[in-house]
Amino acid sequence: MNLFRSLLAAGLCVAGVLSASAADKLTVGFSQIGAESAWRTANTDSIKNEAEKRGIKLQFADAQQKQENQIKALRSFIAQGVDVIAFSPVVETGWEPVLREIKRAGIPVVLSDRAVKVSDPSLFVTFIGSDFVEEGRKAGRWLVEKTGGKAVIAELTGTPGAAPAIDRKKGFEEIISTHPEMKIIKSQSGDFTRAKGKEVMESFLKSPEGKQITVLYAHNDDMALGAIQAIEEAGLKPGKDIVIVSIDGVKGAFEAMAAGKLNCTVECNPLIGPQLFDLIKKVAAGQSVAKRIAVEEGVYDESQAAAELPKRQY
Ligand code: GYE
User: In CATH, what number does 132-268 get?
Assistant: First the structure.
């Protein structure tokens, strides 16, 4: 493997250097963001299960939503001399120094789920993840239909600086900006967690403009589920007094839709373990791969909830 890495560091073509069976004995370092949402735990399970199925040695580190912990984990993967490093970056920026260290060590990097902003694209080989801007657009389009283009919106955004928080806001705003009677009057981070979603929604409702809110757009289901509790505690009916659209498509969202408390969820598929390790295997074998790999997903509303619920795998 060391020879392979030196070849890679030298930028040489190494296609076919490893046979499939040798590649199966890879050591992969994976730095996960944390366990902030049902989406994330499903993503972690998918990655761990797939590695085990393939007999890949997985060094797994949970960063508890802190970039500094991720950087530490990445450095320890270099020290351990893993074959491939994969990670899901909590925020978009601040990765260049550690990515350069990884490049100098000749270890290929695969980004999983979230993207980074770097000036040198050779600092990672490929990125597999969802199109978050499109997810925001899907939420926006659904809302235009549902409300006839009239809405006073409160927005629960994801972790500040995170790709899905930035992109889901962008895509959603792109759609509603063409509808003059749709406006966002409140927007604050709930850090992608249920507890924070509840807390921030409480403060939205208590604010002087709280009574005007007709719609909640949450960047993930967990925050929406927390907000539903806050809405109920305020004596209002979630899904009726306040229309709610969120993103992910976790089981809890389908349950809330079946109960009439959530109106729509835009799917973001976390079960990327199989696709991720297909990619890692190719990267380790020096085969060329696309720079960007997309995950397929849909949009589900209340009318589909009961039929879809038993089929949900996350
Ligand atoms: O939507 C959210 C999670 O990066 C797509 O992170 C992921 C997001 C997901 O905490 O629930």
Answer: 3.40.50.2300
Return the ligand 1 atom nearest residue 36 CA: 10
The residue whose CA has the least distance to atom 8 of ligand 1 is: 164
Residues 6+ apart with CB under 8 A from 28: 51, 56, 57, 58, 59, 82, 83, 84, 85, 86, 277, 280
For 33, 89, 109, the CA distances from 123, given in Å and listed in that order, are 20, 14, 7
Write the pLDDT tens digit of every residue in 254-298.
999 999 999 999 999 999 999 999 999 999 999 999 999 988 767
Instruction: Quickly count: other Cβ atoms within 10 Å of residue 89's Cβ.
Output: 27
In DSSP notation, 2-18 reads HHHHHHHHTT---TTSS
Place of tokens 């290929």: 108
- Ligand 1, residue 221: give the atom nearest the CA: 11
What is the CA(130)–ligand 1 centre distance, in A? 10
Q: Where in the chain is the domain with CATH 3.40.50.2300?
A: 2-129+270-295, 132-268
| CA 30 / ligand 1 centre spacing (Å) | 17
Q: How far apart are CA 286 and CA 35, in angstroms?
A: 32
Q: How far is the CA of 4 from the centre of ligand 1 (A)?
A: 34
pLDDT digits (tens, 9 = 90+) for 15-37: 344 444 554 489 999 999 999 99
Write out residues with Cβ below 6 Å of ligand 1. Answer: 36-37, 39-40, 113-114, 164, 192, 220, 222, 247-248, 268
